[in-house]
Description:
By secondary structure, the protein is of the alpha+beta class. It is built from four helices and seven strands.
Amino acid sequence: xxxxxxxxxxxxxxxxxxxxxxxxxxxxxxxxxxxxxxxxxxxxxxxxxxxxxxxxxxxxxxxxxxxxxxxxxxxxxxxxxxxxxxxxxxxxxxxxxxxxxxxxxxxxxxxxxxxxxxxxxxxxxxxxxxxxxxxxxxxxxxxxxxxxxxxxxxxxxxxxxxxxxxxxxxxxxxxxxxxxxxx
Length: 183
């Protein structure tokens, strides 16, 4: 089932998310719905806060960001914890399904090491590089209550303030389901 994506201004997007355990109700269905929602929205990642859940869960699909699918990842991250971000930072234009029609350059480290659990609650520590690392950092920020616009200058945030207000009021048109903050 395709779920509505929460728009900028919804308080859940600013929450520090809570860990979950294997007793979380209907987790497999939730992940399946998140993957379907991400795909239907042409996203490369989707975090639980973006669908109104303040839990430490996100999904990514960086496969179509590479020339060869083998370089990308389609994964589930539960209870993720960033262990290290290293290598030189590089700039790339990012966007967000919760902040449609706004794209800004964001600096992120080229490599990361992260601890996370899969759907069976097996724990992994893995290193990711390049675009996959960037997508993971963006989604990880979501479960920490951070948005990509928090990584841009105060001047750029002032310049997009009107667009952000329009998003929070639902004064935008997108080709995927969205839920706007209550007025």
